[in-house]
């Protein structure tokens, strides 16, 4: 480990106000805005780490909850940490486990101390607290760890959202106190559901904690996109300018654009590989279900100007054949394309910010992108 975590703000787009930056981490520099592919179980589904490097991945996200349950953080620590365990010598962000515990619904009980829950694998009793989440993430050895938080559902009433937010703030303080690794950055998470007053209060409270970076949680959980955009606009003035901002769980092309314009630096989502396994791919004109009959005799790539391996070597007709035949290569080719599509889009967005033309880029994007074929 050679240097601590720092964030360098390089430029603000004159046309849009979007930010261009670099995250400096012990395992390499990350240009922002950035999309982080999700390797839930220390692996991006259907992909090797070499392939992830080849498509231009700068940082991966792994799942604290799942790795805690299997194979366990102690085993990973004995292997030399998550980087060595999965053969990935580049930055890694680990979530706190909060969202996964939130999604367990009837299998968990939340108290001030933490969350008791039953493993979805074997039903065994488990417990996560802010301190325990920090212990697990420090054992994993990620470059960025997330504070343990409570994610409110959509919809939720103001009182319940406020209670969850205030608990999240207290837990963030406990995470900060428990966190000891100097080579790992701890990000807080802004909550407050879909209420501007709560979101603003949360952004201010966490900013006062002076953490290295900040996640924006509890969005993209079923609410209409305009509500998410309203929340981002409400908190942007209160987010520290010299710290990275991470919109959690967002992964569609239009949301990338709208999020970046509203000051977001980092995104993650499993959507790219999840839809790929079902034979659905991203294109510049919108969603394409390549399993459909219309692709049966399309002897050209998924996207003509895409530089990914799938588009360089395979036609839509061939990929559809593989999918219909149950060949795993079909899902792999779709995954390669979807991941590269999003990573390449972020490259274009960064270039547009550098050239002060992001709003022009957005206009051109929507001229060709059919939102009725969105996700």
Written overview of the protein:
- 41% of the residues lie in helices and 17% in strands.
- It has an eight-stranded parallel sheet. The protein has a three-stranded antiparallel sheet with strand order 1-2-3. A three-stranded antiparallel sheet has the order 7-8-9.
- With 375 residues, the chain is of the alpha/beta class.
- Helix 6 (130-140) packs across helix 7.
- 50% of the residues are buried.
- Strand 11 (185-190), helix 8 and strand 12 form a beta-alpha-beta unit.
- It has helices at residues 49-54, 64-69, 73-78, 82-86, 98-103, 130-140, 158-178, 196-208, 225-235, 253-261, 271-277, 309-313, 316-324, 328-354, 358-368; strands at residues 6-12, 19-25, 28-32, 34-37, 60-62, 92-94, 108-110, 115-118, 125-128, 144-146, 185-190, 213-216, 245-247, 266-269, 280-281, 288-289.
Provide a short characterization of the protein structure.
41% of the residues lie in helices and 17% in strands. The chain is α/β, with parallel strands linked by helices.
Secondary-structure class: alpha/beta
Average pLDDT metric: 96
How many strand elements?
16
- Number of helical runs? 15
Low-confidence stretches: none
Binned, the helix content reads 40-55%
Query: Which word captures the global form?
Result: globular
* Largest β sheet strand count, sense and barrel closure: 8 strands, parallel
Write out the strand line-up for the largest beta sheet, numbering strands in chain order: 4-14-13-12-11-10-6-5
Percentage of residues in strands: 15-25%
Radius of gyration based on Cα positions: 20 Å
Q: Tell me the span between the first and last alpha carbons.
A: 40 Å
